[in-house]
Design goal:
By secondary structure, this protein is of the alpha/beta class. Helices cover about 40% and strands about 15% of the residues. It is built from ten helices and ten strands. The strands form two sheets. Strands 1, 2, 3, 5, 6, 7, 9 and 10 form an eight-stranded mixed sheet that branches. A two-stranded antiparallel sheet has the order 4-8. Strand 1, helix 1 and strand 2 form a beta-alpha-beta unit. The chain binds adenosine monophosphate (AMP), fe (iii) ion (2 copies) and zinc ion.
Length: about 290
Amino acid sequence: MDYSDNRGIDLHIHSNASDGTFYPNEIIALAKKLRLSAIAITDHDTIDGSKEAIETGIPSEFNFLTGVEISADPPSSFSCSGSFHLLGYSFSIDDHILNETLYTLQMARKNRNPKIIELLNNLGFDITIKEVIDFVGEGQIGRPHIASLMVEKGFVESINKAFDKYLGRGKPAYVDKYRLECSKALEIIVGAGGVPVLAHPSLFTIREEKNFEDLVVVLKDMGLKGIEAYYPEHSKDKTSYYIEIARKYGLLITGGTDFHGSLKPDIGMGSGRGNFHVPYSLYENLINSV
Ligand code: AMP
Ligand code: FE
Ligand code: FE
Ligand code: ZN
């Protein structure tokens, strides 16, 4: 395919298999309408979105990569706050160990949600797990769904407020979730023939004496293959910095919007807040690496 007309890519998209609001077939239709040249559906701890997209059929107008976003613990020698997530691309969707491991993560989420609801009840909010399940329909439940229902019920003005006041880490209705060790997350992605990439590095902070480069060295040793340098929250300087670090350590550069449909209404697929663009060459480099 010829993408000399500078069509963009989006390698970070959530479907309603996790906390996106679009069905995989709707994501495919939108990617086609937006004339994107490559996409990946990267749901939290599940590959059901990718599987469904493939079953629906990928149009010949763009390229599709299997994807996942795994919440992991940072390496044990690092203390981080924020969201430490690993993206996986282009793996075999039938890989047994990958599927089994993701299943345990989904069960952990299932156990966590009633605990969040109990804490909200203790805070005086009238909300039940059944209401959340009915509200979400298909797919696995995450905090954004609970936040969204809290808005719907008039408990808070916005999803962000729900996180800031109640659901975010350290807040009164926060429940920690079981996470994979990052070495394990990298291992299962690589084991399934995939390419592991460090997601949105600006969304976590490394504490004290260690820095981002120290982390990259350790992760590369564990099998990391790339850094998500292009991300709507990254300033120009940050993007350039992550690109420079990726080049220095021989890692791939990737990018995507973290599209969540109406759960992140200000982020558009492929275009972020409007002027976001990820070049097609990054997709080519990624597939040429496997
Ligand atoms: P969970 O998977 O249940 O731990 O929820 C994590 C997800 O919540 C992230 O991937 C984001 O999609 C979303 N999220 C985290 N923090 C916020 C926030 N402050 N405002 C809105 N959404 C958030
Ligand atoms: Fe999310
Ligand atoms: Fe993430
Ligand atoms: Zn994401």
